[in-house]
Amino acid sequence: MAKQRHEAPTESIALRAFAVLEEVVRAAAPMSLDEVTHARGLPKPTTFRILSLLQSADLLRREPLTKRYTVGPRLTAFALDLWRQSTLRVQWHRALEEAVDEIGESCNLTILEGDKVLYLDRVETRRPLRLHLEPGTRVPLHCTASGKLFLCQMSREQIRRLLGPEPLESHTDKTITRYADLFEDLARVLGTQVGTHDCELFDDSVAIAVPIADTAGYIYAAVAVHAPSSRESIESCMRYLPALRKAASRIAATMTPPPAEPPGRSAPAAKGGRGAAKHDSGVLVRPTVPAKRGATARTSSRRPLR
Q: Is 273 helix (H, G, I), strand (E, B) or coil?
């Protein structure tokens, strides 16, 4: 059981609210009222009032079925605004530009946000035939190259809880809609560490993605290349892996790891809650710009789906 963080009695309500907000943002999974209460060491009525206040301001969102709290739309927009102002954006964008110059196709940088893939940055190809997607775009997990990378490090129970009942939403006649097929595809992604999209979200579109991970293997971002399927295939895109991995390495070098936490403190991921948010090693590399990573259990990407 995690140790409670006892707050100073003189702490203002504003600082308490910020601490609660920070607690939910840092969690890999949405948090319950009891989990936030225990983590912050506050009285339960106080925690509930703070959570309700943050929810009413759209800084947090309460999931209708589980009643758990997660990042709200206003906070996400704020994080994106911070990212746009960050000097790191220049370095990330330059790495993508160099990849596009070498590859000749569009490249993007993504993170996991809740049950979606969020585009942090994208550089389009100069070719006239292309799929144009703006930074800030959100796409599904089960039918995208980056999304499969994020999913492959989760347990099957977590994936089902995150994506909901089957059939999964179909976007084209190639979309994977059954969990048996998805788990088979994710096992391949886990082994190769390359996510693929073969006309599953958009017709005439293929993509591959490579991970940006910490030293323990937790994937917190991805770099992908997109191209029309009339011009490229999954197989032909594989020749771009060196350029993608070089861009991923350059972007990863700008990320700053927080202090490591002692290992073995987390509860089993299947029970959900705060314990599922800890990596086995206690080390997680985070972007210096706040960004919600969503409901991913930080288990090593080297482990098979369970």
A: coil
Are 113 and 123 in contact, with CB atoms under 8 Å apart? no
List residues bridging with 151 in a β-sheet.
Answer: none
The 3-state DSSP class for residue 199 equals: coil
Q: What is the pLDDT of residues 165-200, one digit of tens each?
A: 999 999 999 999 999 999 999 999 999 999 999 999
Report the C-alpha gap between 267 and 260 in whole angstroms: 17
Residues 288 and 290: their CA atoms lie apart, in Å, by: 6
C-alpha distances (whole Å) from 97 to each of 100, 210, 213, 229 are 5, 16, 21, 22
Residues in CB range of 36: below 8 A, 6 or more apart = 20, 23, 24, 47, 51, 69
Is residue 275 within 8 Å of residue 263, measured between CB atoms?
no
Residues, the chain: 306
For residue 38, report the phi and psi dihedrals to the nearest 5 degrees.
-70, -40
CA–centroid distance for 267 within its chain = 21
